Amino acid sequence: MCQFIETICYEGGRFQRIGLHNERCNRTRNHFFGLRPNLQLELYLTVPAHLKNEIVKCNITYGVEIISITYDLYKIRPVNSLQIVTDNEIDYSFKYADRTKLNALHKLRGQSDDILIVKNGFVTDTSYANIIFSKDEKWYSPQNPLLRGTRLESYLSEGIVTPALLHPEDLHLFSEARIINAMISIENSPVLLIGNINI
Fold first, then answer.
1. Cα 16 from Cα 37, distance rounded (Å)
2. How far apart, in Å, are the Cα atoms of 199 and each of 77, 81, 110, 112?
3. Domains of the chain as residue ranges with CATH
4. Per-position DSSP letters for 11-61, written without gaps between them
5. Which of 69, 77, 80, 130 has the most Cβ atoms closer than 10 angstroms to its Cβ?
6. Which segments in the chain show pLDDT lower than 50?
7. Strands 56-62 and 66-73: what pairing?
8. How far apart are the first and last CA of the chain?
9. Residue 10: exposed, middle, or buried by beta-carbon count in 10 A (0-12, 13-18, 19+)?
C-alpha cells in the first residue's frame, strides 16, 4: 500500500497552514483510496511540552489511516549551491513517503549541497523544497513544480510569487534564488546566488 507524508511547521504556538495540509492530505486519500469523510489533522497533533516554544517539524505518515507522527526540533539546513540534474520521467505529484528516486538524483549533486531538477526542459524543484527566483524585486516560481508545497501555494494565492516557465538557460536573468517549503519561508531561507547553480 502506498504511504504518504505531510510535513507541518509548528511555530509561534500553532501549526502553520493547517488548512492547506488538510486539503492535500485528503485530496491524496481520496485519489488513492476513495476515502471520505476527510481527516482533520489538527485533531491528531499534540506537540510535546518541551517543544511548545520552539520551531518544530511535525511529520505525519499516513495511508488509509494515520500511521505515525513525529515531532523534531527544526534548524535550517544550509544550501549554498545546487547541481542541475535532468529526469524527464520523475513523478512526485503526491507527497510519497517513498523518496527512492529523489534520493538517487540527490546522489548526483557532486560537490554541491543539493540538486535542481529539470524535467522536459523546465526547472522544477530541489530534492526537498520548492525554489523561487528574484528579478526586479519580484519573486517567480517554476510553473510546473514536481510538488506544489503548502507554503508555495500560500505565496501564489497571496500574489507574493508569480509562476513562470523557466528553462535552465533563463536563470542568469535572475539576481538570486531561495528555497521554500513547509519549514522555510522567504524571510528565513538562505540567499542562493545564481552563480552557485551549476549546469
1. 23
2. 22, 11, 12, 11
3. 4-73 (3.30.470.10), 82-198 (3.20.10.10)
4. ETTEETTHHHHHHHHHHHHHHHH---SPP-GGGG----GGGTTS-EEEEEE
5. 130
6. none
7. antiparallel
8. 37
9. buried
